[in-house]
Design a protein that fits this description.
about 100 residues; alpha+beta; two-stranded antiparallel sheet; 2 helices
Amino acid sequence: MWLPFKDHKQLGESRIATLKCLYSLERKLNSNPDFKIAYSQVIQEYLNLNQITLIDDASDERYYMSHHAVIKPSSNTTKIQVVFDASAKTSNDLSLNDPYP
């Protein structure tokens, strides 16, 4: 995600921690194929709306924001919600939510 309003280089490295979150999310979704499909559909909608973009060249120079699923099987409307974690700390203990000078 490109963030024009923050100098993402001040934030520190975020790729490794974000990948760990992604692998954890994949394990969770693989245990429930219905929720995996629903989560994939939400992500595809974000892609279609250009709210997120795929990248071809992974680099530690970028800022990566982790995300996870909030699953509510009892909900009549939204059983799965994607939540982006702007509070996740980077390698220098800063997050996107932290104030900057």
